[in-house]
Amino acid sequence: MRMKTITLEIDGKEVKAEEGMTVLQSAKNAGIEIPTLCYHEKLEPYGACRFCLVEVTKGKKTRLVASCCYPVEEGLVVKTSTKRIIKNRKVLLELILPIAPTGAHKSLAEKYGVKESRFPLEPGEEPSYCTLCGLCVHYCDKIKKWNAVGFQGRGIDRKIVLMSGIGDQCIDCRECYDICDAGKFITLAEEF
Amino acid sequence: MPKLKSILDLENLRKEILSKIDPKKPCITICSGTGCQATGCEKVSDAFQEELKKQKLEEKVNIRKTGCHGFCEKGPIVVIYPDEICYLQVKPKDVPDIISQTIKEGKLIDYLLYIDPTTKEKIIHESEIPFYKNQKRLIFGNNRKIDPKSIEDYIALNGYSALAKALFNLTPEKVLEEVKEANLRGCGGGGFPTGRKWETTRNAPGEPKYVIVNCDEGDPGAYMDRSLMEGNPHSVLEGLIIGAYAIGSHEGFIYVRQEYPLAVENTEIAIQQAKDYGFIGENILGSGFNFMIKIHRGASAFVSGESSALMSAIEGKVGEPKSKYIHTAVKGLWDKPTCLNNVETWANVPFIINNGADWFKSMGTEGSKGTKIFSLVGKVNNTGLVEVPMGMTLREIIYNIGGGIPNNKKFKAVQTGGPSGGCIPEKFLDFPVDFDALSKLGSMMGSGGMIVMDEDTCMVDVAKYFTNFLADESCGKCIPCREGLKHMLRILNDITAGKGTEEDINRLEELAEVICDASLCALGQTAPNPVLSTLKYFRDEYEAHLKGVCPAKVCKELITYYIDPEKCQACGLCAKNCPTDAIYGEKKMVHVIDKEKCIKCGICFEICPDKFNAVSKISGDVIPLDVPKGTKIKPQKR
What is the ipTM of this complex? Predict the structure, then answer.
């Protein structure tokens, strides 16, 4: 069965997409860049980093959505870098830079002119080098089928852990090292 | 009990049950909801049973342990029928008197009656107590009349007649139309039109379709869903089965938190009874409609009340919200169309089916129909669960039902909508309470929490309390909610410690905006409401804190306790009770607080006798110098 073609507008440009695609995928295909941290082509969208927020307008209603999860719709009008979006991304950057000072988001911070964060670490608090993007967890689960990495804790206590009994046996693969660009796995591996 | 196989079977059973009820036979009803359990209703019911046995009255008097009556503050509540004599705060030692005087001789026991605090009048009947008189108890009304563990009690009160009517007299489409026409809106917080939600699931492609009862109530101080699930579980089941029939679902779940053991127990019993009687299972009442219900016990996370998180939890995964742009009504549990409604919403359904949409629409406001149950708590004389028609004003709820603010204190604000709601100041007390009016004020209906605050409440401290709750309950999946709330809380900690700056307020506002905009689920998107609404209505309190003053004298870091040497009579109570030995004083000598040792627990302030009133809290004003040790007191004339 042939997929239905959908026409939408992204940043003023007419874009054709297949039904079932997300706004992020169709933007990528059209050469329009939307920043992401927790998105990976091989994985289901997770929608946690919120960097890929875009403004979508359908009829009279405009709202902010995560483009990695939002499905394309006929006649949808998408804007990827309005003032409101940029402001959100800048604050998000300010929130994660102190805890994860390295990684792809650093160049994004440069692009947006975010030099210093108004939300610094507390005295005695160490950077975690982790944005909790979940790529390592989902990659190990869905692609490697190892389930050696997981989340632990809730809210501000949430962290990445190697699962006991599995995590310490998986050091050969190291594919999560490549997938993580915030540096978490270097520090995690040191624990073992 | 043989299974009921037709509508006639049900009507015959109802007649049989009713024929066994002697309306003149005394019936002692004892509220056995969670509130009264806490105040000892079990011991009271045991005492009644023993006493009736002792006086050989077991055959002549019935005892019924009912669902929650709502006036929890005055529990344990005992109401004696047929005269509806209401006794409050009953203790086991009162029981022999109640039996020998009230039951045997028809005499009233004065000290157990409600006394109106304003008129000093004794009130005999439960329904005439102002707390009840000013309510409209529709959904909650049968709680006090039935034993929640008895399906026959429910059937006696016309229970399951709406289901029979739906199955035999109405098509699923007609049931759906009726609920749509009634304009019932989701009572769990969102206020989304229930009929539209049902229709979406009904029309969504994919089988099977699921229906779910959301009883993951987690707001601090709110317990209306709990009391309904505990007190009248069959009304929720009946609504759910009717909904399933309208939607075309044959499988339902009831998500109850594990910390609600009585709700779990009563729901389990109710489901088993409904199965035995033929209201759940194959070929319900011979209609050909099949429906099964399972209970899922939730593991206490507040965020699991969010629909996609709740469904993940039922699927056996961690209860975390998903970034969903396709409604769960279309793609929910195991990616199948799923209709999730709150306990109270489902419980409305049998009433709408029995009485019609027009009757339902006759109650409420333009946009919000029917009634709403609120949990009225905080600085209010009558705390408990109240049910009122939509559109009643906040003032009527707080003053006419709640009996106003205790100790002649001044009202400051009412917080509605649970932790993500907002604080509404006095100038809006005459606003009608409905979904739209509360949103307009920067708060929300939420699930129906209503916390009253008086002049001794610090609004920055309140914002801090709720932000702390939400930061703690955030699942931590998305950055704005996890990191944003963490920093909001840090800023609020600084402000309440007197370390805040003007820039901190700007940062708070900016974070609030981003958390609302960018968060993944409704928990995050509404989490800044406590801060935003207090900044909107009580900005002066924030500004005072920046100057080192807590106007309500709550924030520890900004207050100092001081003993007035003119007033201290050296009674020694404060020194004796101070946990850190921070008060120095001897007989007939003025007592003095050592500010280095003082941990500002406030015990001295509370314990200083009213007739002396020597201890004061100071915030912002100049703290007078302490008198030298050994200063003699100035004896007061008495």
Answer: 0.95
